[in-house]
Design brief:
The protein has 159 residues and is an alpha+beta fold. Helix content is 36%, strand content 19%. It has one helix and seven strands, in the order αβββββββ. Strands 1, 2, 3, 4, 5, 6 and 7 form a seven-stranded mixed beta sheet that branches. The radius of gyration is 27 Å and the shape is rod-shaped. The protein starts with 10 loop residues before the first helix and ends in a 13-residue tail after the last strand.
């Protein structure tokens, strides 16, 4: 009687391995995609924080030049370039009638903020900022970025 040497795998063994690999893929793919989304949101939030800090620096330079008597129409920190280019922003200082366009030196992702940006008591607040045109809207205030209004100064009550 001849004995057959068994080489390779049977069809059932191969199917079992394929099923196990499919189960592992079904479990891990959503987890990996969620981690990638969280990383993107974190990067967007950090871009808004970096942009907010750049606006604060531009505002400080503006105040310094204004107090030194060098802030005039030719100042490099006062810009009339269009808003929405990721390099300029209109900021309303306290209760001023007109907004001041600050030139912001920021090399990160393109951050575009809405029109209701303010400086209250020297603190910059940016509203409705989006990063690279994503649908998520961020606010910036007090060195933090948030998707709600928790990082902004509460409005004064009219009691």
């Amino acid at each position: 009687m001849k004995r057959m040497n068994k080489k390779g795998f049977t069809l059932i063994e191969l199917l079992a391995i394929i099923v196990i690999l499919a189960i592992i893929a079904v479990i891990t793919v959503p987890i990996i995609l969620n981690i990638i989304d969280e990383a993107k949101r974190g990067a967007e939030k950090n871009s808004v924080i970096g942009y907010g800090k750049a606006v604060e620096l531009a505002y400080t330079q503006y105040l310094f030049e204004k107090s030194s008597g060098v802030a005039d129409a030719s100042s490099s920190h006062l810009s009339s370039s269009p808003l929405g280019d990721g390099k300029s922003i209109a900021v309303r200082i306290d209760n001023a009638e007109t907004a001041v366009n600050l030139k912001v030196d920021f090399d990160g992702d393109k951050v575009v903020c809405g029109n209701d940006n303010t400086i209250k008591s020297g603190k910059v607040e940016l509203k409705a900022c989006s990063v690279n045109g994503t649908g998520t809207s961020y606010n910036y205030g007090g060195g933090k970025a948030c998707t709600d209004t928790s990082c902004l100064t509460p409005a004064a009550s009219t009691d």
